[in-house]
Every structure is written in structure tokens, then in C-alpha cells.
Design a protein that fits this description.
Elements (H helix, E strand, L loop, with lengths): L5 H11 L9 H7 L5 E2 L2 H9 L4 E6 L8 H15 L3 E6 L3 H4 L13 H15 L12 E3 L2 H4 L4 H7 L6 H5 L2 H7 L7 H4 L1 H16 L1 E7 L3 H15 L4 E5 L12 E2 L2 E2 L9 H9 L3 H11 L4 H13 L5 H15 L1 H14 L10 H9 L3 E2 L7 H8 L5 H9 L3 E3 L2 E2 L17 E6 L3 E6 L1
Parallel strand pairs: 2-3, 2-5, 3-4, 5-6, 9-13
Antiparallel strand pairs: 1-6, 7-8, 10-11, 10-12, 12-13
Helix pairs in contact: 12-13, 14-17, 14-18, 15-16, 15-17, 17-18, 20-21
Length: about 450
């Protein structure tokens, strides 16, 4: 998409998104896509979604400098409701981010106020990339620090805390898990659910907000808000809990060698992001297409057929990787990731890759550490492409070693400055598929 600005490309992506009109209601589509794990009254929610435009929200805490795949699920739920004509609020928690939602196992490390404020700004920018900022139902950003900072501790306890029962709070899943752990739970994190409940009450008062969405592991926090609105205002409010997405083998989704898949390209390169989706198992890929893309039911069912009948083509994985990478990083970055995948294995020109794409691709490979002038045989052994320098020399002699996809036949070959792409990088290959990266 040469010549197209990032803003224009984002507008084009949002403009192409549609809910699937083959479903009788939006609720039906959300259920088919596997986006509803738990909710308040399903019948009332379905009617609400089909009725006049209303305001709804989801909260994102700045406990890291970027959102991740779990947050992307919520952003796409927000977007689907926005496409229906409803009015989203994107809450980035400047106050709850200072506290931290209780984790099941251990207390969070509290970040400084300056760090949290910086991360609030970063996350707000990410939220607006996935929701339309134009029209009568444009997304509005809110920060819960705006209504919690002016409250004194006495006012908070009198006006909000009195509506919460400790016995009920102790039964919340996250709290119960921590109480039974060696770490226990601090009063600070114990109070988190009161803060989130108060958020919903304030948004109800300020914007007539009627619905909150979040992960099902947040259900206790979600219902703290609906209960508070009922007690204080005497009105019904709703909540939707999306399922925690796991792999078919039961392992946690969205983890790559222990690291979250972040939406920030500096924390997870578009190439790494693309490869994550491309490597989804056959047993998982259709569920991923339902949740993370706007492909229609008919298109997804066709991919389901292809997975069953022609799994070796990996057509569903390729489409999934393309769609989600373009959604998050843009079509140009998605194509760059595809080009890099091709080029690494000799089916494209490595020199044609831009530096950021090449750097992201090489970062995923085993690494050979050294400097200009290092013997190639030594680098091959160090990277693990061969077991020893002797084996490396034999592989070179047999014609099975490549530098930047060019075959090598000199057993004494060294890495020279001419080998360095963008002045820093080289790709080493043995055979057709064994790759390593070299960075000067």
C-alpha cells in the first residue's frame, strides 16, 4: 500500500469491517464466534443489542506499556458493538493501574505514577486504532483517575465502600485464589474490585453506560459494578465475560516462549506476530478465525472444510496470519512479514527487505555471535546449525551452506562487510530449512 498514510490505511481497514448479516441477531453472532462465556440476562442483552444505540465500555489497565492479545479480544468485541451503532467508551485506568488487578499467584509490583501516566497515553493510542473515532458513535476515551483522584479516603469509604460486603468480596475467584496462596493478598489489591465497580457506577451516571465487557476471569469485578448500580441507582446494568482463550492442548494462548504477544511492534515485531498466527494448530485455527477476524460465517466454514480435507496447504493459517497482522500492524507490515518468510528460505530477495522487517525476522532465529572476519564454519557451529566446525566444513564442501541465500563453497569463508544487509545483518542457512541469524 505504497503512498497510503498510516491514518488512511487504518480508516480503510475499519471501513471494510462488517458484522455478518447471515445471523438473525448480533448476540447470535457473538455466541457463534465463541465470544460469550458468561453474562447477565442473555435475553435482555440480546434485546439491548438490537435496540436503540446505548453506551458500553471495557477497561484496560496500564500495567505494561502495551496491550496484548487478550486485550485484542475485548477491542474486537467493542468494535462489533460499535458496528451495530452502539457507543463505546475505552477506559484506560489511570487509577486502577496504580493498584493492579489481583493476579492468582502473587502481588503485583506497583509502578510509579509517572510510569503509569506514560502507559495510559500509550494504551489510549492503541485503543483508538481499533475503534472508529468518527461519527455519532465515535469511541470516547475516559480515565478513571479523573473521578477517583478527587475523592478522599473518607468519602470513598462512606459513599462507595459501604455498599460492598466483605463476605461477597472474599468469594471472588481472584481473591479466593490469593487467600489460599502463600502470598496472601494485600488490602490494596483486595480493594481493586471496589474501584472497578465504582468505575461502572460513574460511567452509568456520566454517560448512561449500560454494559461492561471483559474477560471471564474478571467476572467478579464486572458484577461488582452491576451490583453497585443496582444498589445505588436502583437500575439494571449488564456485563459480558468473554472466554479465556486457550490452545486445544489446554496451554495458555498468546504466549511465545513465556512472553506475551504484544500489540506494540517494538515489543513484538510484525514478523514475529505473523509467525505466531501462521503456526496455529489445525485444531485451533478455525476458532481463531472466528474470534480475531471479520471473515463471514460462510468464509470461515469454507476454511474449516479445507483444514479437514487439505490441512497440508495451511490455507486457514495463512489467511488468519494475514488478517490479524494487517488488523494490528497494517497491510504493508503484513506483506513485509510474508516477504520476509519467503526470502529467509530462498524464495525472495533478502536485500529487498526493509531494516525493521529484516531485524524482526532475524530476531526469531538461532543466533551466531561474532564480528566481521569471523570464520563461517565457527558461526555455523555456534548457532547450532551443525554440531562442530568439522561438520560445518564438510557441509560447505558438499554445497549445503548459504549466506544470504547465496551458496558457499569455500571452507575457509569468513563473514565480510559485503555480507551485511543494512550494514549489520546476515542470514546463514544449512540445507533448505535450517536458519540462523548473524548481527554485527
Amino acid at each position: 500500500m505504497a503512498g497510503v498514510s498510516v491514518a488512511d490505511e487504518r480508516t480503510e481497514i475499519l471501513s471494510a469491517q462488517r458484522n455478518d448479516d447471515s445471523f438473525e441477531t448480533l448476540w447470535d453472532e457473538l455466541e457463534w464466534r465463541g465470544l460469550i462465556h458468561v453474562s447477565t440476562d442473555a435475553g435482555a442483552l440480546s434485546e439491548l443489542l438490537e435496540g436503540d444505540p446505548f453506551t458500553y465500555y471495557c477497561g484496560f489497565d496500564p500495567t505494561a506499556p502495551s496491550l496484548h492479545l487478550g486485550n485484542l479480544v475485548q477491542l474486537l468485541v467493542l468494535r462489533r458493538l460499535q458496528l451495530k451503532g452502539h457507543k463505546p467508551l475505552g477506559l484506560v485506568g489511570g487509577s486502577t493501574g496504580l493498584i493492579g488487578d489481583p493476579r492468582p499467584t502473587a502481588e503485583r509490583t506497583l509502578n510509579s505514577r509517572d510510569t503509569v501516566a506514560e502507559w495510559v497515553t500509550r494504551l489510549q493510542g492503541q485503543v483508538t486504532r481499533f475503534l472508529s473515532t468518527e461519527g455519532e458513535n465515535a469511541v470516547r476515551l475516559v480515565n478513571n483517575l479523573d473521578w477517583t483522584a478527587p475523592l478522599s479516603a473518607i468519602d470513598f469509604l462512606r459513599e462507595v465502600g459501604k455498599h460492598f460486603r466483605v463476605g461477597t468480596m472474599l468469594k471472588k475467584d481472584a481473591v479466593a485464589a490469593r487467600l489460599n496462596s502463600d502470598e496472601g493478598i494485600s488490602y490494596t489489591e483486595f480493594s481493586y474490585q471496589i474501584l472497578q465497580g465504582y468505575d461502572f457506577l460513574e460511567l452509568y451516571r456520566q454517560y448512561d453506560c449500560r454494559l461492561q465487557s471483559g474477560g471471564s476471569d474478571q467476572w467478579g469485578n464486572l458484577t461488582s459494578g452491576t451490583d453497585l448500580i443496582r444498589k445505588v441507582e436502583g437500575q439494571a446494568a449488564h456485563a459480558i465475560g468473554t472466554p479465556l482463550i486457550t490452545n486445544s492442548d489446554g496451554s495458555k494462548f498468546g504466549k511465545s516462549e513465556g512472553n506475551a504477544i504484544w500489540l506494540d511492534p517494538e515489543m513484538c515485531s510484525p514478523y514475529t506476530f505473523y509467525q505466531f498466527w501462521l503456526n496455529q494448530a489445525d485444531a485451533d485455527v478455525i476458532a481463531r478465525l472466528k474470534v480475531f477476524t471479520f471473515l463471514s460465517r460462510a468464509e470461515i466454514e469454507e476454511y474449516e472444510r479445507q483444514v479437514a480435507e487439505e490441512p497440508f496447504k495451511r490455507a486457514a493459517q495463512k489467511r488468519l496470519a494475514l488478517e490479524v497482522t494487517a488488523l494490528v500492524h497494517g497491510a504493508a507490515a503484513a506483506q513485509g512479514a510474508i516477504d520476509a518468510s519467503e526470502a529467509l528460505f530462498g524464495r525472495g530477495d533478502l536485500a529487498a527487505l526493509d531494516e525493521a522487517t529484516l531485524r524482526g525476522a532475524i530476531s526469531e532465529l538461532p543466533q551466531a555471535a561474532g564480528s566481521v572476519g569471523a570464520p563461517l564454519a565457527e558461526l555455523l557451529a555456534e548457532s547450532g546449525l551443525v554440531a562442530s566446525r568439522g561438520e560445518a566444513r564438510r557441509a560447505i564442501k558438499q554445497g549445503g551452506v548459504y549466506v544470504n541465500n547465496a551458496p558457499v563453497d569455500d571452507e575457509d569463508r569468513v563473514i565480510s562487510g559485503d555480507d551485511l544487509l543494512h550494514g549489520r545483518y546476515a542470514v546463514l542457512r544449512r540445507g533448505k530449512k535450517a536458519l540462523a541469524g548473524f548481527t554485527a
